[in-house]
Amino acid sequence: MQATAKQKMHVKKNDNVQIIAGNDKGKTGKILRVFPVKNRVIIEGVNLRKRHMRPNKNQPQGSIVEREMPIHASNVKKV
User: Fold this and answer.
1) Domains detected in the chain
2) Model pLDDT for residues 29-68, shown as the tens digit of each residue
3) Mean pLDDT, range 15-27, rounded to an integer
4) What is the Cβ-side half-sphere exposure of residue 50, based on CA atoms within 13 angstroms?
5) Nearby residues of 18 by Cβ (< 8 Å), 6 or more positions away
6) Which pTM was predicted?
C-alpha cells in the first residue's frame, strides 16, 4: 500500500483543540503528534484505548496500558 500525498493541515503540534465529533465530543486538549499523510492527530487525554503489553524486563507479568490513539483531523477545531 502506497502512502498518499501529504495534506495541508489546519492544526499543528501544541495547538489547543476541541473535539467536534465522535465519542469524545466536547473535550479539549493539546495536540501531541500530527500525521499529515494520514490526516490524523493525537490529542492529550482524548480517544484513550487499552493496549495489552507483553512481558518484558520491567514488567515481568506484562501489563495493560491506556494510550491516546489518533483521530481524524476533520473532527477537531482550534480553541
Assistant:
1) 16-78 (2.30.30.30)
2) 999 999 999 999 999 999 999 999 999 999 999 999 999 9
3) 95
4) 3
5) 26, 27, 28, 76, 77, 78, 79
6) 0.83
